[in-house]
Amino acid sequence: MQEGISLPEIEKVNEEGNSASFVISPLYPGYGVTVGNSLRRVLYSSLKGAAIYALEVQNASHEFSTLPGVKEDLIQIILNLKQVRLIIHEGEDAVLKLKIKGPKEVTAADISASASVEIVNPKQPIASLSKTGKLDMELKVNRGMGYVPTEIKENREFPIGTISIDAIYSPIKKVNFDVEPIRVGEMTNYDKLMLDITTDGTIKPTEALTKAAAILIDHFNLIKNYQEKAVAKKGKAKAEADKNKKLAANKTDFKSQKIEEAGFSNRTTNALLNNKVKT
């Protein structure tokens, strides 16, 4: 603990569904915004999740296609699929199937998923089918981080007929924080940080907060241990240089070495000396 700066306490003051509120206090003056903004940025950008990143639709080769008997066009269906939140329990990717005939209001519950994939919002609407309508599609999902637009995946090769879509991996829907002054002894300028976190249901708010804090700690530890690692690296380089210098000093100059000191047999040594080879 830094001398003169006491550590605060954290309390979960409210939790309802996928939302929770936390209070962290008392924080040293100015630390409320520092801690709150850091956690908010990491929560939005650096937590892993799973999302649909591509799909193949029968009788549709691009996202501007329309399907007979389906009320929504393919763009609207893709927007609905982006809202499907899921968890991949094993592996990094999976393939899901959606094959259904109308009349029906199609939801995420109609997606056929393997045992390793869990859909957490099965009531999410996908499309409305008339009596003649049908949907037959293959959904490709994987694990990732943050938000990955289609443009970033342009260099990735997809099979013909595969439609790439923006992937929303972040499990965080909303993060807000507020800072209020709080009294500590006679000081009235300490900070109270109030943090509100809403997730998509694939992770609990408390777990999201602890994971974000762990990511920040890992990065700050790199800075904390910088001097120690720099000294160790410098010492290693010096030891290597000393070793090479010693090897160079001990290296024999064979061109100036006498024949008698070269370690040849007596017969070879005499033959060389008789031929006036002395070094």
Topology:
Layout: E1 9-16, E2 19-27, H1 31-45, E3 48-57, H2 74-82, E4 86-88, E5 93-101, E6 104-107, E7 117-119, E8 125-129, E9 134-145, E10 147-148, E11 162-164, E12 167-168, E13 172-184, E14 187-199, H3 205-224, H4 226-250, H5 266-274
Helix pairs in contact: 1-3
What does it look like?
The chain has 279 residues and is an alpha+beta fold. The chain has three domains: 9-47 and 173-204, Gyrase A, domain 2 (2-Layer Sandwich); 48-168, Beta Complex (RNA Polymerase Alpha Subunit, Chain A, domain 2), CATH 2.170.120.12; 228-274, no CATH class. Helix content is 28%, strand content 34%. The protein is built from five helices and 14 strands. The chain has helices spanning 31-45, 74-82, 205-224, 226-250, 266-274; strands at residues 9-16, 19-27, 48-57, 86-88, 93-101, 104-107, 117-119, 125-129, 134-145, 147-148, 162-164, 167-168, 172-184, 187-199. It has a four-stranded antiparallel β-sheet. Strands 5-9-3-11 form a four-stranded antiparallel β-sheet, with no helix packed on it. A hairpin with a 2-residue loop joins strand 1 (9-16) and strand 2 (19-27). Helix 1 packs across helix 3. The longest helix is centred in the last third of the chain and has 25 residues, at 226-250. The radius of gyration is 33 Å and the shape is flat. The relative contact order is 0.17. Its EC number is 2.7.7.6. This is DNA-directed RNA polymerase subunit alpha. It catalyses: RNA(n) + a ribonucleoside 5'-triphosphate = RNA(n+1) + diphosphate. It holds the Pfam family RNA_pol_L. Belongs to the RNA polymerase alpha chain family.
